[in-house]
């Protein structure tokens, strides 16, 4: 199995900010630990006398929660691998997320929360994912068993449970979640009650492990929460401010996973009361932006409550979705105002590269494409998919013409304006360009302009269409990713798995995953450019097109190298485990 240098490097990166405690340290037998280390080592889960205590929302169910299943899944077990003793911990893991594929997805957050949990479950952990129930999902039965209703945040919520892939998928039912528009916004803008909706999600997710019986037992209060993005960032705040003072969740830890720092959940200062936090906790979420970093209309002269800042300042550890992005967010250029907060927590901040769901994104089994293929027959397979896409989109069916794809939100981050900026040069050449995206109205108009101006060379599909995204990924020779910033990026990973060469701005996770083509050494899986300008983009596109046209053997070898990379989630899952171990070794960051 060939692995890119960038991936190999990422494996060591987890320990970068933690040099005094390496990956190995997690697996040292207890008998060999020093006294202080023993004190900090994760403890087996033992029911306590205090089990009858009240939760924030009323009488606890803790007293009857300790079934054998819970204990087994919470406890440390010692295994021997070969002649080396190791301690393997299994955890009760609770993901909290606003999106989870295939039920709800506007982007990569949904993908990750749909595929990392099964990877962790496959490694022996008990895993729950808590997400809103935005609709009566028409996929496999979600409403398994009776709905359980509880009081939460002054209202009543319900939990629906669906079990698959070894994961307990829990959907929070409340009238504020289903909307005729999108998940977060409709044609009139973002919903005015998003702060309430996601506050409720956090509190529901903190109650679910205590109150929801799954296979005869509750998860209990020895959990590792993974709070994803600002929507879930209040989880560590409530743990510290509401639950631990009541004696609950003493052994739990919360990890904040940042998928995109640009979105921080910023609201007017007077909305602090919406969080229902005890007095004295406003410092955890209040924030004043300097003039050049102000985020929007909600602030009052830069003063705001900032939900993500609450998570950054209280989480036990922070994870971002690539090592490169973990570094970038500590700089003024990439920190979106949070760089000083993040730098102050650098020792607890790691980057773990995303994987991909190889059941959903696998050219040999993909149900959306006309011809399945693998590394042994990819040239023929891709050629058939290319011809099918050209036919479907009424483009000239020409195998020799380079087919270039772009898939993504049409916004500042994804650099769709750079694609449009390159169009006059690009489409004067003998190429075909297929873009799929939705978002900014002016960029959507730009895509329509492109198609009208170059009807025999360009298609601009405005909309969100998963089957089409698979077809483009399989059919294209090159995939454009001129993102201004990219925490990880999934499309370049999908592209490489499908033998499609990414052409990407060297930023964040793109720089970590796309190894630039080196014709002399015969290495690399794509092309990267910097600075992020139309000129630099055009220049590198010229190189990629020349390789495609003039050096087809080199191009094929590059495709093969991409297809050989191990994109499975297992590597990321093991890095997350290491981080759980670090979180559990330390006392809670915020008590
Ligand atoms: N019009 C369309 N039709 C169909 N499918 C479409 C589509 N537009 C986008 N998609 C799909 O949505 C997903 C987007 O993934 P990205 O990695 O670009 O995530 P995004 O920027 O949303 O999320 C953030 O979180 C993820 C996950 O951590 C990070 O990789 C990323 O850098 C960060 O910005 C991909 O599966 C893509 O194919």
TrEMBL record:
Family classification: Belongs to the glycosyltransferase 1 family. Bacterial/plant glycogen synthase subfamily.
Highest classification ranks of the organism: Eukaryota, Viridiplantae, Chlorophyta, core chlorophytes, Trebouxiophyceae
Record flagged with keyword Cell division: no
Catalyzed chemical reaction(s): [(1->4)-alpha-D-glucosyl](n) + ADP-alpha-D-glucose = [(1->4)-alpha-D-glucosyl](n+1) + ADP + H(+)
Enzyme Commission no: 2.4.1.-
Enzyme class name: transferase
SUPFAM superfamilies: UDP-Glycosyltransferase/glycogen phosphorylase (SSF53756)
Source organism (scientific name): Coccomyxa viridis
Name of this chain's protein: Starch synthase, chloroplastic/amyloplastic
Domain Glycosyl transferase family residues, every copy: 397-541
Pfam families, per the entry: Glyco_transf_5, Glycos_transf_1
Keywords assigned by UniProt, alphabetized: Amyloplast, Chloroplast, Glycosyltransferase, Plastid, Starch biosynthesis, Transferase
Pathway: Glycan biosynthesis; starch biosynthesis
Residue ranges of every copy of the Starch synthase catalytic domain listed in the record: 92-343
Coiled coil, from the record: none
Compartments it resides in: Plastid, Chloroplast; Plastid, Amyloplast
